[in-house]
Amino acid sequence: MSGDDTGMLKIHETTLQDGSLSPVFLRCDGDVLALASDRGTLPLPAGALEAVMARFGAPLEDGVSVVEVASLDLGASGRLRHVRHLARYDVIARDWLIHERPGEEPRCALATTVAGALDHLARAASTPLSGS
């Protein structure tokens, strides 16, 4: 399954108070990225994904086995892959995001970490500064 057809990629799910799941999507519309969820859609500042992956991501280790869940074409910014990995010490596979950029080594980070950081940046960018 690929997110390329819709321009959206599910990157996370949160559990609501009633126990239901609420998906969080990364949407790509040209060069503009946005987070979309039940709370609405918030555009991300330019370079937000790259900054988050540089801060929290690391190169994928050689020989690590991952299962691709979906991917999203980011145009000139490369491709974002949602993968699952079950480490020897884990009981449940974890969701990771791998950002592949042309001419650079792919960087991977836990999907929950990336989703949280992007949500913070999107909300901060959409909040007007007081006194402005």
Topology:
Layout: E1 8-15, E2 21-29, E3 32-37, E4 40-43, H1 48-56, E5 58-59, E6 67-73, E7 79-85, E8 94-100, E9 107-110, H2 111-126
Antiparallel strand pairs: 1-2, 2-3, 3-4, 5-9, 6-7, 7-8, 8-9
Helix pairs in contact: 1-2
Structure report:
By secondary structure, the protein is an alpha+beta fold. About 20% of the residues lie in helices and about 40% in strands. The protein has two helices and nine strands, in the order E-E-E-E-H-E-E-E-E-E-H. It has helices at about 50-55, 110-125; strands at about 10-15, 20-30, 30-35, 40-45, 60, 65-75, 80-85, 95-100, 105-110. The longest helix has 16 residues, at about 110-125.
Keywords:
five-stranded antiparallel sheet, disordered N terminus, four-stranded antiparallel sheet, 132 residues, 41% strand
